[in-house]
Amino acid sequence: MYILCGLPFSGKTTLAKQIVAARDMAHVNIDHIKADEGYFVSDDQVPDADWAGIYDVVHASLLMPLRLGRDVLYDASNLTRKERDEMRELATSRGFDAKLIYVATTEAVVRQRWQANKANPTRFDLPSVVLDEAIATFEEPSRDEDALVYAPTQDVTRWIKANF
Questions:
Q1: What's the CATH code, domain 2-163?
Q2: Engineered SS bond to 100: which of 6, 85, 139, 147, CB 3.0-4.6 Å?
Q3: Sheet holding 148-150, edge to edge
Q4: pLDDT, averaged across the chain
Q5: pTM of the complete model
């Protein structure tokens, strides 16, 4: 299981789509699951009581392809070490390997993309308070997390070939 992490608007989903196409692996996107569960809103507008059900669907969606012998990429912000550790534990406790992918995009670029999305929406709106909270909450992966690091300035095709 590959676990993405990075700030909102860092390019996680864009990178995920390219990895999935190159490697023909399953792709589990928390925003898509959230929408399938009827929430077409920012995370802060989802009632706390409903997150457990959303994560139940996420976990089942991740484990099914793994049990069928397929690699899977989990596309979510995974802002904190705790969140990333929980996802690694989900995989490793069932005998599967887990690898972290960190999309290392600067705050300035994230904010620029967020502003561009406000002017020409390509995804749901993220209130500024939620973006600010994500930036404040984010814990950059530590060295012992052994993350594959992708910076948007890198050639994505070359990066995928070198890392997969």
A1: 3.40.50.300
A2: 147
A3: 26-29, 72-75, 2-5, 99-103, 148-150
A4: 94
A5: 0.93
